[in-house]
Each structure stands twice: as structure tokens, then as C-alpha cells.
Amino acid sequence: MKEPGCVILGIETSCDDTAAAVVLDGRKILSNCVASQIEIHQRYGGVVPEIASRKHLENLPLVIEAALEQAEIRFDDLSAVAVTYGPGLVGALLVGVSTAKALAYACGIPLIGINHLEGHIYANFLINPQLTYPLIALVVSGGHTDLLYLSGPGSYRILGRTRDDAAGEAFDKVARVLGLGYPGGPQIEKLAVTGDPQAIPLPRARLSGNSLDFSFSGLKTAVLNFIQRQKREGINWNPADLAASFQAAIVEPLVDKTVKALHQEGVKTLILAGGVSANVWLREAFQNADLPLGTQVYYPPLELCTDNAAMIAAAGYYRYQRGEISSWNLNAVPNLSLTAK
Q1: Is 8 helix (H, G, I), strand (E, B) or coil?
Q2: What is the domain-level CATH number for residue 286?
Q3: 211-237 tens-digit pLDDT
Q4: 290 and 154 in one domain?
Q5: Are 152 and 100 part of one and the same domain?
Q6: Per-residue confidence band for 129, with pLDDT thresholds at 50, 70 and 90
Q7: What is the pLDDT of residue 50?
């Protein structure tokens, strides 16, 4: 070990990426290794849970070994092991949790269970350790769309969330209909570059009252109905225009409700997190939004937006500093809430 400090091994296996990373003092990434399963699941148009679990079993020992070797440390140098224990696919989560428990027990070091969404949030702290509270976080990924108020470390209040499909899930489903493959978000974003976002009128869900919740199921259905209607009537249509119009219909409510939350809570720090936060259109929309005067917007680099273990290690560091250690009874919780105690 070249540098003294708090060294956390992070493990992430919530879906189809097998990841391990070593982070020093919650901010310096010594290694961040990911074994992707995208090519395996592309043929099915989405993640097959049983296959994902089996590949995690094969990949995780190799990924952990690579992370330690890249960081130039040994197991004896570790301060703790942090692992995603939910939400996610239960079989995939169990692989990571079981491995982390075995490593922590064998090394005689603490085990720290991390909520996957908290990991995405703390990806921002890896790059911007100067971030202070309170702040608003918009977490948008394949399985989640949550708008959160953070009053302090580990303190979360849900302001809004999707009532049906997550934003990333809607991207994947529409991409499948368009024959673009999996994962859908990057494919639609690429196609939308040459399209007109106003070419095809698509709905934005209008929820009652002052709700900050989201809904994307109706939008997905509207896209499907549009395609079927055009085919039935023999009308030619431009896939790029549809991709751009769909993307705009996703981004607009995300930005509008987040801006509303910033005004409502009187907060001037916003962080974006999750795989969809890598979307360039979304980032540019926030740059052009009517944000409260003085608002600062932060988001991680692209490699830290998608699932990775550096973000899990970072979140683990802050819990370790607060003495929040998990018991050996830690188990996978596929529907884990960010506000669960």
C-alpha cells in the first residue's frame, strides 16, 4: 500500500454489471473494474436474471482480483468492504452480498451494506467532495426515477418518484420497439441527434395537484400506438424524429419537476445521478433551465453514471466514518427503499 488512509473495497452486482473497485478516503479511485454482460443480454432484448446471476458467479472473483491488482494493494490493506444489497435482482444481489460477507469475515474487517441508489448519489462526491448539504438529487436509471431532498449524510426525503415505468425502462422499451437493441438509452440518444424533437406530438403526464411524481407508461404506449397507426395507414415516418420527440418527452418533465423542487425547497445545489444522467440532452436541458439564481448543477463523468463499484465504495466510506456497520445477517433486499432504516 503506497498511501495510508481509509481503503474501501466496493462490490456491485445489482443487475448485469459485475463490478469491484478500491477507493481511498472516499474520493480517490485506486481502481474501478467492471465486467459488462451487455453482449450476452442483447440477444434477449433485456437482462435475463438467471443468466446475470450465473455470470456474476463466474466474473466476481476475477473482477475483485483485478481491482486489487490495479490498486496495488492486498486484502490486508483494506479497511472495510462495501456492497450493494438492494434494490436490484435478488439472485444477482445475493452473489455480491455473499462474497462481500465472506471477504469481510475472513479479513476481520467491517461489512457495509449500501443502497444502490445511494451509490449513484455518492458518485458525485467522488468527483466533487466539496459538495455540501442540503441538496436535491435526481436519480434516473433503468429501474428508478426518484427526486430526493438530502438534508445531510444518509438523510433522504422522497419528493417525487415514478408511478409506473422508470425513465431508463421507458428508453429500453421504446428502443426495443424501434429495433435499436439493448441498452436503449444510448441507442435512442444517438438516433435522436438527427431528428426533430417537435416533429411528433407525444404526451407529457399531467399529475394532479402539485405532485412531483413522474409517469412514463402513457408515453411508452403513445409511441407504440403511433408506430402501429403509421404502419396501418401506410404512412412513412422518420425514426430519428420519433426518437428525438420521445427523448424530449422524457427530459421535459424530469427538468420541470426538478426545477419546481429546487424552488419549493429553497435549495441551490442539484446533483444528477444514474445511467440516464449520462444523456447529453438531459444535461443541456438543465443548463438552459430556469433554475433558481445561484444554483449549481453537478453530475458524474460518464463512466460513473452507469453501474460501477467506485460509487459503492464511496458511499461505504461515508457510512464507515459515521460508524454505520452492517451485521453478518445482511441479506439481499430486491425492493430496498432509500429511506429504510
Answers
A1: strand
A2: 3.30.420.40
A3: 999 999 999 999 999 999 999 999 999
A4: yes
A5: no
A6: confident
A7: 83
Residues 223, 246: contact at Cβ < 8 Å? yes
Is 50 in the same domain as 156? no
Of 156, 154, 139, nearest to 214 by C-alpha is 139
Sheet holding 155-161, edge to edge: 155-161, 145-152, 135-140, 269-273, 296-298
Asked whether residue 45 is domain-assigned, the answer is yes
Tens of pLDDT, residue by residue over 142-171, are: 888 999 999 998 899 999 999 999 999 999
- What is the share, in percent, of the chain residues with pLDDT greater than 90? 82
**331 is a domain residue:** no
Q: Are residues 68 and 25 in the same domain?
A: yes
Provide the Cα torsion 233, 247, 18, 46; round to 10°.
-10
Closest CA to 314 of 5, 29, 105: 29
Supply the range of the domain harboring residue 180: 133-300
Structural domains in the chain (count): 2
Q: What are the residues whose beta carbons fall under 8 Å from the beta carbon of 206, sequence distance 6 or more?
A: none
Single-letter amino acid code for the residue at 136:
I
- Whether 68 has a pLDDT exceeding 90, the answer reads yes
Report the phi/psi class of residue 209: left, alpha or beta, with left for phi > 0 and alpha for psi in -120 to 50.
Answer: left
CA 300 – CA 274 distance, rounded (Å): 9
| Contact status, residue 116 vs residue 14, Cβ threshold 8 Å | yes
- Decide if 128 is inside a domain: no
- The predicted model scores a pTM of 0.92
Cβ–Cβ < 8 Å for 28, 22: no
pLDDT band (50, 70, 90) for residue 3 = low
For residue 323, the SS3 value is coil
Distance separating alpha carbons of residues 101 and 111, to the nearest angstrom: 7
